[in-house]
Amino acid sequence: MPSIRTIAVIGAGQMGGGIAQLCAQSGFPVVLLDVGDEILNTAITRISGGLEGRVAKGRMGEAEAAAAFARISIGTDPSIIDGVDLVIEAATESEAVKRAVFAALAAHLQPATLIVTTTSSLSVTNLAAATDRPSKFMGMHFLNPALAVPLVELVRGLATDEETFAAIRGLARQLGKTTVVAEDVPAFLVNRTLLVMINEAVTTLHKGIGTARSIDAALTLGAGHSMGPLELADLIGLDTCLIGLQALYEKLAHGKYRPCPLLVKHVEAGWLGRKTGRGFYDYSKSLGSPAQRFPIPWSGGEQPGPVAGDL
Ligand code: NAD
């Protein structure tokens, strides 16, 4: 099985920064590549703050955090990836961008270097075919935030060999993740299921069957979810949800993926969720944590907050 000792992360955005920190925390030397110094500096500041936060919460010693930080180097020149065992591609979600990334990196890869893509919606097989090594290529779909979400979806392309798959599954375990295997289909397992549930919750609201609070209470108190679907949509970003549903609808041509008009309207209005201060909820007022609003009797651990009244 190919051994993974050094990692390059391509793209220092939302996902790439978190993945780089996770790898460094887990003991891997990491090079983080992006197109601009400003983006890289923002990412490294965020990583430094993230490590400091872990120290403050007692999850990590100061020396351990300093060692993790020292394992990360940044740069804009593809030559910084020379000699790495694994490339984690976390660049902008665009086939053209990802193809350009693979072309730019090709001359700097060792014959044995593995490549994974973190794409949420593109075909892994198609991206693999844009490289010189489809058998050493697969999907490794982290969820956002990559540091905190315990699951990674593993996606084989048509040509992925079993040694590559075993090495990447082993890496995911070293990063402390639980893995599920998904076929190379649009949105894989998590988003394919989640987006349909969110769309159905928005449709339920649109039809006046319930209010946002009652729908979310129904799914938290009634079905044991830790967060209601509308609140979750606000957290993900309603624009992101809409793009995902549109991609599913386009690729799978089934009416169940057609985005609810109310979701489209929210995006048109710029009500994108938490990031814009308004989505299905108004974040200019403090709503408290989901557990406080809709305490789940069997969730244990947390002190339940005030029980919500009749909804
Ligand atoms: P992002 O826009 O936050 O970051 C993308 C980064 O890629 C940017 O910093 C950009 O400058 C960089 N980039 C673009 N072209 C590049 C190039 N040629 N070389 C190097 N870097 C380049 O995007 P993101 O949300 O971090 O998403 C990255 C990947 O992760 C996408 O494939 C996305 O589908 C996937 N993903 C995203 C989420 C999410 O919730 N955001 C969740 C799971 C997976």
From TrEMBL:
One of its GO terms (molecular function) is 3-hydroxybutyryl-CoA dehydrogenase activity. It holds the Pfam family 3HCDH. Residues 188-283 form the 3-hydroxyacyl-CoA dehydrogenase C-terminal domain. Residues 6-184 form the 3-hydroxyacyl-CoA dehydrogenase NAD binding domain. Its EC number is 1.1.1.157. InterPro entries: 3-OHacyl-CoA_DH (IPR022694), 3-OHacyl-CoA_DH_NAD-bd (IPR006176), 3HC_DH_C (IPR006108), 6-PGluconate_DH-like_C_sf (IPR008927), 6PGD_dom2 (IPR013328), NAD(P)-bd_dom_sf (IPR036291). It is an enzyme of class 1 (oxidoreductase). Keywords: Oxidoreductase. This is 3-hydroxybutyryl-CoA dehydrogenase. It comes from Azospirillum rugosum. The lineage of its organism: Bacteria, Pseudomonadati, Pseudomonadota, Alphaproteobacteria, Rhodospirillales.
